[in-house]
Amino acid sequence: MKHRIVVLGAGYAGATTAGRLAKRLHRDDVEITLVNGDPEFVERIRMHQLASGQELRPRPLRDLFAGTGVQVRIAQITAVDVDRKTVDLGGETLAYDTLVYALGSVIADHGVPGAAEHAYNVAGKQAALRLRARLSEVKPGGTVLIVGGGLTGIEAVTEIAEARPDLEVAIAARGRVGGWLSDKAQRHLRGAFDRLGITVHDNADITRVEADGVVTNAGRIEADVTVWTGGFTAHPIAAATTLEVADTGRIVVDAGMRSVSHPDVYAVGDAAFAEGAGGKPLRMSCASANPMAWLAADVIAARLTGRKVPETTIGYVLQCVSIGRHDGIVQRVTPDDQVLPTAFTGRTAARIKEMICASAAWGISHPTMMAPSRRRHLVVTGAGETRPLIRS
């Protein structure tokens, strides 16, 4: 009987893990199933582009994984039972021997009244398309407010301002927008805001979102459209299981992305609470998702084939932010994500950011070309033990 590996979620982390496992393990011995609610791979790091009116290349999952040995299932995941080792797909039950949980994150409104009812977001494809449709209805002179001063907020506000110079676009944040960046990067960002005509509301604590604006600790900001980019939280399915999760709902994993409570479950991407360089939790980002996926796949393959389990510590090198299509910031950071004085800006940074985005999508589109080519035989499993198969 083949060892059943089920990967939940086909974002950057899930799709990368599935493809790398297919490259590592012999298909005679394993059955890899990738389950996703959307039939296409969604370039989440480009959702601000989609919302602003740009078209993105469609990437059907079944086409991407054709011939790899990965079975793609398009289905909504409604529950996971990690004690019975099953996944509920809306009435149908899928059993597994090894589970890779990569359901990612959803928008976090932090309990702010009215945020869920009145604010748009760019956390996924459908959300970005809803915002896109709403922006198309806004007449010249209309107002758009982005709430949140992190990477997502900066990319959203600059993309919209560049695409719609006929609108009054603003950004509001609890602290200083982009305040964690180096001095050079902050100066460049403020210059870009001025160039694009973006109004900045620093130190604006949003206490309520309404249909025509927001209420802050300092007063009211009018807006025809409010876009919420105030953070992400883990998909709620994990917290409803007996898996050990952090207070953020992320699955607590060890250095090999393996659940500390259920050894047949691995978590990657935004769903995983993992330590990186310096013992700091890895942040929710594409920069974390890919190395987590590579590591998880290699650890799973090593354990199933009786080989040495790899040991590595994930760290960072850069933080990249686009400022429209022709400007950007590439901020150098330490492995534990502390900002360094060095930053690349302008068109050079925009080209670097685009290269990184395109490379990530290329890796997903060529799922078995990013790992060693030798597919190793598995495995007889039982009670958590593995031993190599002897083949003539």
UniProtKB/TrEMBL annotation:
Question: Could you confirm whether the keyword Disulfide bond appears in this record?
Answer: no
Is the keyword Transport in the record? Answer: no
- Pfam families xref list: Pyr_redox_2
Which cofactors does it use? FAD
Which residue windows are transmembrane per the record?
none
Key words of the record: FAD, Flavoprotein, Oxidoreductase
Please report the stretch or stretches of sequence annotated as the FAD/NAD(P)-binding domain: 4-280
Q: Which family, according to UniProt?
A: Belongs to the NADH dehydrogenase family.
- What name goes with this protein? FAD-dependent oxidoreductase
Upper taxonomic lineage: Bacteria, Bacillati, Actinomycetota, Actinomycetes, Streptosporangiales
